[in-house]
Amino acid sequence: MQFTDLGLSAELLRAIGEQGYTTPTPVQQQAIPHILAGRDLEALAQTGTGKTAAFVLPILQRLTNPLTSPLQKVTHTAPRVLVLVPTRELAAQVLESVRVYGAHTGLRSLAVFGGVGINPQIQTMRRGIDILVATPGRLLDHLGQRTVDLSKVQTLVLDEADRMFDMGFIRDIRRIIERLPKERQNLMFSATFAAEVRELAHTVLRNPAMVEVARRNAPAELVSHSVIKVDKEQKRDVLLHLFAAHGWHQVLVFCRTKHGADALSKKLDQSGVRSAALHGNKSQNARTRALADFKSGKLAALVATDIAARGLDIDSLPRVVNFELPNVPEDYIHRIGRTGRAGASGEALSLVSSDERIQLRDIERLLKREIETSILPGFEPQHTHSVPRPAAGRPPAQKPAQARTRSGTGERSGAPRPPRPARAGTGGAKPASHHSGQRHR
Ligand code: AMP
């Protein structure tokens, strides 16, 4: 199927051509006809599938082509389309898509989110906009100050609905929806359809078309996963070692907390790895600058928290490192969705300490496979019973697997352990399986 088969206008086809897209992705093929027809839609599609264009293109078409798909032409300056997103970064990226795909339509768009001044948003809104992209909190601020008029909204998009739940936005969303006209088109995109997302879908969507697509880059297929077992307190040194040993130049590093991301970024920077932290406490300007510097190659590392990284789109990012595993296994999928995009292969490497064993097990369950595990010579973990054993007599591997790789059964074989310096910790006196060690916090 070609984009021309979807009945999109010449202006949109031109913008699509300028992006170099040749064929619509599966979610675009399935969703665009329903949206053009004015139907509500429930779509299960993750970041990386082309979901943004799947709703932006038909929305632009409906706004600009009243003959084929009439969204009422109004003289008002109030937005006719509202896209709700969970994070500022995603808001900025959706706005960018709206502007790129709508470059030849003359439509006006704006993103409103917190962390930046509200006044410029108010001024732009006064001049009139067609499409408003918003995070729930800032939109409620505007509603409270009566600086936005949602009475003309004809299409509502809930993007990354599952994430909105994770972030506790559901009440805000319901309050916003109460302010919208009853007659409208509703589109919901979500990476998962957990029970609460379904419940929201039932109350918001009317007779929706259903679209479900596999990830464009199924993580198990295009991304190579690996784990290095290491003690928590050694993780920074291991990361620095890896940067130095492999000359890494563009790595997205995930931490669990803002504080952890700040501390790690500082340490990397001090050690000569140019780095910035990306998290919710950073000003919007700092976040935008960090992302731009990372994309342009000025920074070798971007250290992010899960929420800040949500929706990031960085072309052909070669590598994601989980400095800490996420508590929620689905977040692992979101994290690695940043690499291996657009058909490129990617690498997801996790530094796993003994206290993260449960998270690792849950991730492996979700992936339905065991992740190859290794230890790095010189950084052998001490705080665990579940260290993968290098097989007896095996020569040390070279880079990039300077690490020794767990063999299928070797870790259970009781193979002799190489001598190591005495250190505090529980040591591996007896053979233990991968997941059977004690937890050390
Ligand atoms: P999304 O899932 O919306 O985050 O999109 C992921 C990436 O796919 C973005 O970089 C888009 O620019 C790109 N993309 C969207 N549609 C297409 C297409 N039909 N062909 C190639 N790339 C696309």
Top-tier CATH class of the largest domain: Alpha Beta
CATH architecture field of the largest domain: 3-Layer(aba) Sandwich
Low-confidence segments, given as residue ranges, are 387-441
Q: How far apart are the first and last residues' alpha carbons, in Å?
A: 54 Å
As a whole number of angstroms, the C-alpha radius of gyration is: 24 Å
Number of domains: 2
Descriptive account of the structure:
This protein is α/β, with parallel strands linked by helices and 441 residues long. The chain has two domains: 210 residues, Rossmann fold (3-Layer(aba) Sandwich), CATH 3.40.50; 214 residues, 3-Layer(aba) Sandwich (Rossmann fold), CATH 3.40.50.300. It is built from 16 helices and 15 strands. The protein has an eight-stranded mixed sheet, with helices on both faces. It has a seven-stranded parallel sheet with strand order 3-4-2-5-6-1-7, with helices on both faces. α15 links the parallel β12 and β13. α2 packs parallel to α3 and α3 packs across α4. The longest helix has 14 residues. The protein starts with 9 loop residues before the first helix and ends in a 36-residue tail after the last strand. 46% of the residues are buried. The C terminus is likely disordered. Bound molecules: adenosine monophosphate (AMP).
Q: What's the layout of helices and strands?
A:
Layout: H1 10-19, H2 26-36, E1 41-44, H3 51-64, E2 81-84, H4 88-101, E3 109-112, H5 119-127, E4 131-134, H6 136-144, E5 155-158, H7 161-166, H8 170-178, E6 185-190, H9 195-204, E7 209-212, H10 219-222, E8 223-229, H11 235-246, E9 251-254, H12 258-270, E10 275-278, H13 284-296, E11 301-304, H14 306-309, E12 319-322, H15 329-336, E13 346-352, H16 357-367, E14 372-375, E15 404-405
Parallel strand pairs: 1-6, 1-7, 2-4, 2-5, 3-4, 5-6, 8-13, 8-14, 9-11, 9-12, 10-11, 12-13
Antiparallel strand pairs: 14-15
The structure holds adenosine monophosphate.
